[in-house]
Amino acid sequence: RHVGAVSDLLAADDGWLIGNRLSLADLAVFTMLTCIRETPEGARLIDAEPAVGRWLERVDTSTRSPHSPAR
Q1: Torsion of CA 71, 47, 23, 13, to 10 degrees
Q2: pLDDT (tens digit, 9 = 90+) per residue, 26-65?
Q3: How far is 28 from 48, CA to CA, in rounded Å?
Q4: Which of 19, 49, 55, 71 could pair covalently with 7 via S-S, beta carbons 3.0-4.6 A apart?
Q5: How would residue 13 be classed by pLDDT, with cut points 50, 70 and 90?
Q6: What is the rounded distance in angstroms from the CA atom of residue 46 to the CA atom of residue 4?
């Protein structure tokens, strides 16, 4: 239900959790969901919400250093 709530927030805004750009809220939730996604159950929950998966990729891309190796 929490992953669904994140999905609802993303649908209600401009693709970010709060406002129309990356915020500390995005970074905090990204960190938690990235850890949760490492478990089989967490991966299933996140995979069930495609908007959340796309948002995770967007946050990851937005915060990656231009000198970071590609993932």
Answers
A1: 130
A2: 999 999 999 999 999 999 999 999 999 999 999 999 988 7
A3: 21
A4: 49
A5: low
A6: 9
